[in-house]
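Example record for the data management plan.
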Amino acid sequence: MTCLNRRDLGLLVLRAGTGAVLMAHGAQKLFGCFGGVGLEGTAAAMEHMGFRPGKQSAIAAGLGEMGGGALLVVGLATPAAGAAAAGAMAGAVSVHAPAGFFAQGGGFEYPAFLGFTAAAIGLAGAGRYSLDHATDHLLDQPWTVALAFLGSAVAAAAVVGRRAKAQAEAEVETFD
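Corresponding structural encoding:
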């Protein structure tokens, strides 16, 4: 009989907790659950924050959070799940960055923590108590780690960069 592995048990707890928080956060955006504003409200907020088009941005953020979180909970396609969630959180960090670091002042502490945690899980792997392990790591190969994180980084940089450019252009228009 095999004893429980503490490292794998710790990864399970970390995956489940982080994934559940991300799922709830995404469900607020997509469906209005847990006091969220739903897709239309999130789309309007995304437009206001400079993410255009707002509806597609809301869908992408919600799916990155909810889908990435769900996959983290069960430990399936863990590199892609961690990368997707981290990419979504990069967008949130860009919104909160002007307010500084700490969450109590509206800063980026919370989305950064979720993003770094999701990324760490994606890099470390899901552990023994996961669907990745049960499927013989079919969706958790070294090449999937590289591809998932590269794709997420490129997408996040493009989205955040496009938002920054639009904000800079809006500021110039304001001063004209």
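Summary line stored alongside the record: Helices lie at 6-31, 38-49, 54-74, 78-96, 109-124, 131-134, 142-175.
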